[in-house]
Amino acid sequence: MSEPQATIVQGGASVVGGLIVLAGPELGPWLAVLAASFVGSLWTLGASDTDDKGRALFLLARINLTACALTGCVAVPVVTYNLLPYEYALPAVAFCLGAIGAHYKSLIEWAIGKAKQRAGGG
């Protein structure tokens, strides 16, 4: 009987698992942020028109980097007003930012319209 061969995927999973065990206490929340923003950006990617793999990869990277960069700033009010605890707020905010993706302009326009409506500027 021949020995089982390890595939690259199995080796990669082992390396990632080892890194999580080693760096988990330090990077745990930020790994959760990265995973949540990745899942949210996949939602945006599925709804977008990407012609080729290069443009899709660039869109995915851009949304992930933006979501990871803004998560801390957006999560502060969520934690401050006790809407969610810190460990739950970071991934939730990262997922929402990833899901919003490239549609942030329409979201800002909607928010400005709602603010004008409340102010009576209709």
How many helical elements? 4
* Form type: flat
Reported for the largest beta sheet, the result is: none
Low-confidence stretches: none
**Mean pLDDT across residues:** 79
Distance between the termini: 78 Å
Residue fraction in strands: under 5%
Structural class call reads mainly alpha
Helical coverage, percent range: over 70%
| β-strand number | 0
- Report the order of strands and helices: HHHH
Radius of gyration, taken over Cα atoms and rounded to an integer in Å: 19 Å
Classify the oligomer: single chain
Walk me through what this model shows.
By secondary structure, this protein is an all-alpha fold. Helix content is 81%, strand content 0%. The chain has 4 helices and no strands. The protein has helices at residues 8-47, 53-80, 86-100, 104-119. Helix 1 (8-47) packs across helix 2 and helix 1 crosses helix 3 (86-100). The longest helix is centred in the first third of the chain and has 40 residues, at 8-47. It is flat. The protein starts with 7 loop residues before the first helix and ends with a helix.
Short description:
This protein is mostly helical and 122 residues long. The chain has helices spanning 8-47, 53-80, 86-100, 104-119.
